[in-house]
Amino acid sequence: MSPDALRFYERAGLLPRPERSSNGYRLYPASAVRRVLLIRGALALGFRVAELAEVLRQRDSGATPCRRVRALAAGKLQDLDSRIAALAALRDLLSRTLREWDKLLRKAGREKRAGLLDAFVAGHPEAAQALSPQLPPGLRKRLAKKEKQK
Q1: Residues linked to residue 19 through DSSP beta bridges, in sequence order
Q2: What angle, 0 to 180 degrees and rounded to 10, lies between the N-to-C axes of helices 49-60 and 66-108?
Q3: 6 within 8 A of 26, measured Cβ to Cβ
């Protein structure tokens, strides 16, 4: 674990600020190791830092945020399923497109322009308006929200 990561966890409210030695070094208690492993595990599951900070604040104050953690994880699974479905649809579209392009390339020959992208847009005008499933979910949501506002 890098010192930068530990400082980031402290600033984000995930890890309590440790005491300092006389020369300014951070003195982490043994419990900090378990806390860092918990943080890394939650981040590996897709929890956002802000979500995790909220959960850990509740937990540290004596509350039991287990149902909240479960609900957050269920939402992440739903988002992931949606992203997988969107990527599968993109894969199918790309596969079909490559087959179509192969036909266009054969027809055009080696020296002629086949107009592959033009043919794609002409055959799939909705694709020019769609947001790529390869965009990060947060950015896709913001862009979709802006599109709805227009």
Answers
A1: 27
A2: 170
A3: yes
38, two tokens: 């918990």
Prediction pTM value: 0.72
Q: b/e map of 34-61 (b: 16 or more CB within 10 Å)?
A: ebbeebeebeeeebebebbbbbbeeeee
CB 104 within 8 A of CB 73: no
Q: Note the Cα 59 to chain centre separation in Å.
A: 25
Q: What is the rounded distance in angstroms from the CA atom of residue 8 to the CA atom of residue 14?
A: 9
One-letter identity of residue 35: R
Q: Are 58 and 52 in contact (CB under 8 A)?
A: no
Query: Considering only CA atoms, which of 145, 133, 49 is closest in space to residue 87?
Result: 133
CA distance 29 to 36: 11
CB 47 within 8 A of CB 68: no
Q: Is the pLDDT of residue 126 over 90?
A: no
pLDDT, tens digit, 9 for 90 and up, residues 65-124: 999 999 999 999 999 999 899 899 989 999 999 999 999 999 998 989 999 999 999 998
